Predict the 3D structure of the following.
Amino acid sequence: MAGFKTHITTSTALGIGYGATALTCYDVPLPACILAAGLCGVSGMLPDLDSASGVPKRESIAFAAAVVPLLLAERFKRMGMESEYIVLAGGAVYLFIRFVLAKMLTHFSVHRGMFHSFPACLIAGEIAFLLCGHENLWEHYFNAAAVMIGFMSHLVLDEIWALDFSGGHLRFKSSWGTAMKFWGECLGSNLLTYALLAVTTLASLGDPAMMHKASAAGTAADQQVATQPDDSQRQ
Ligand SMILES: [Zn+2]
């Protein structure tokens, strides 16, 4: 199993590369690039939220408790909430993540369970998509991709560390195949994971930014039809 330092170093390097590429090649604004790079770096720790204790879990929870309310502030503003209520809601989200979610993770998760899986990676990406409060759909995708790159780097490293080349022969350790998987051993966690994936997918499809894009596309199509000359008029 790759260690905490290996995970965080790799995901941070990937995050810096991701943000730098977006900034230099696609003219993405600097603050959005810095945020995406940070999200990618931290996401390299996310799968190990299922470990019973330790640095990855403690740091990820602390970081999520601090950053999620900040990301949600933009969304709360769009919902028309007054600034006092935004502060209160942010505090409530902080306390929920820091104490309730952290306790739930300790009680209900098993190391190398479904936190280390492809659907979990997709869920993490969709949560990042939903947390982004911007109207621009590309920013939602940009942040979601950053989280998924960081998350996937963790799964890939765990699988690489499950290979043993000692003695000049390739050997697979018992942990091989437990990080990059679609399905785990516990039926209950599998069902819960896919149910959560369904919920986050539906929520993402119903996100205002997604709906705005769909209605804008619909309006453009209507306008195109309206401006096209009628065949009967042409003849
Ligand atoms: Zn891991």
Residues 47-48, 116, 154, 158 surround zinc ion (CB under 6 Å). The chain has one domain: 4-164+172-211. Residues 13 and 53 are 25 Å apart (CA to CA).
